[in-house]
Design goal:
Rossmann fold; Elongation Factor Tu (Ef-tu), domain 3; five-stranded antiparallel sheet; 9 helices; binds flavin-adenine dinucleotide; 17 strands; 2 domains; alpha/beta; binds FE2/S2 (inorganic) cluster; 279 residues
């Protein structure tokens, strides 16, 4: 059982939770994730480890309430409660070395997972330019945290309510057009954002890595649920990734696979939500 030690609402439907998990905190590296089960018979929720504290033995997750399980976690679990199971750290850590100037892009919920990556890149001696994008100012979170792990930060909002008006890709294009030499780009966010970043950097020949969030079940390479074509080969995102060369991802297949269980997910939401008293 894993005790919740803090819980915060960062923006509408965005929850930050810190959980006691000493063994995961001890070995966690940037880019890795965990699989959580609310109760013994709950479905498995893969979530990125957004922060960890080895001394306190704690890990932090930031999640968006999208369907039944994330809603249940957000509404039924509070500080002092225990989560049935938290397994991790899973996945191959993000490749960190001294690349030079690295632009790290986080879109929406993708802002949380870029924090440990920015921190590790900075520790490795890189100049880290972070670009974080939100639909509007009300949805912005972790700006100060990302800023503390970056040499420079650019914030974009779709509606212009904070920072630069537009998408993260507009900020990236501006940096490139201003002649900034960029040695590597790392992008985490909605698949459409990562796809557009990768399409933009391909003609510029800038190595670009993305973190994929395909449907996962076991998270250990056993079920094949997360398989995806990368560079013409079948890869299991949970063990071979979640980080991949964005120029090699079959984005069309990714889009199709993300929708595979849409009908079942909606059915579960309708059937169980009222039964267990969720709003
Ligand atoms: C490696 C990885 C890291 C992730 N990190 C985060 C994170 O840090 N924060 C965050 O908010 N979300 C993250 N996700 C997505 C998160 O797992 C889903 O939002 C969650 O499982 C939704 O469950 P649900 O029952 O609330 O919604 P459902 O109604 O079951 O599904 C809503 C949508 O969530 C996605 N989803 C559902 N089940 C899974 C599953 N088993 N695996 C992957 N995606 C699923 C699908 O796109 C689906 O259409 C991550 C996913 C992966 C694979
Ligand atoms: S989630 Fe089962 S193989 Fe990747």
């Amino acid at each position: 059982m894993f005790e919740i030690v803090s819980k915060k609402t960062l923006a509408e439907n965005v929850v930050e939770m810190t959980i006691k998990a000493p063994r995961i905190a001890k070995t966690h590296k940037a880019g890795q994730f965990l699989i959580l089960m609310n109760y013994e018979h709950s479905e498995r929720i893969p979530l990125t480890i957004a922060d960890s504290d080895k001394e306190k033995g704690e890990i932090t997750i930031v999640f968006l309430v999208v369907g039944f399980s994330t809603k249940e976690l957000a509404e039924k679990f509070n500080v002092g409660d225990e989560i049935f199971s938290v397994v991790g750290p899973l996945g191959t850590p993000t490749h960190i070395e001294k690349f030079g100037r690295v632009v790290v892009i986080g879109g929406g919920l993708g802002v949380a997972p870029i924090y440990p990556i920015c921190k590790s890149l900075k520790e490795a001696g890189n100049e880290v330019i972070s670009i974080i994008g939100f639909r509007s100012k009300e949805l912005m979170f972790w700006k100060e945290k990302i800023e503390s792990a970056s040499s420079k930060i650019i914030v974009t909002t779709d509606d212009g309510s904070y920072g630069m008006k537009g998408f993260v890709t507009h900020a990236l294009e501006k940096l490139h057009n201003e002649g900034e030499k960029i040695d590597r780009v790392i992008a985490i966010g909605p698949p459409i954002m990562m796809k557009n970043v990768a399409k933009m950097t391909e003609p510029w020949n800038i190595p670009t890595w993305v973190s994929l969030n395909t449907i996962m079940v076991d998270g250990t390479g056993m079920c094949g649920g997360c398989r995806l074509e990368i560079g013409g080969e079948t890869k299991f995102v949970c063990v071979d990734g979640p980080d991949f060369d964005g120029h090699k991802v079959n984005w069309e297949e990714m889009e199709i696979r993300m929708k595979v269980y849409k009908i079942e997910e909606e059915k579960i939401k309708q059937e169980h939500q009222c039964k267990i008293g969720l709003k």
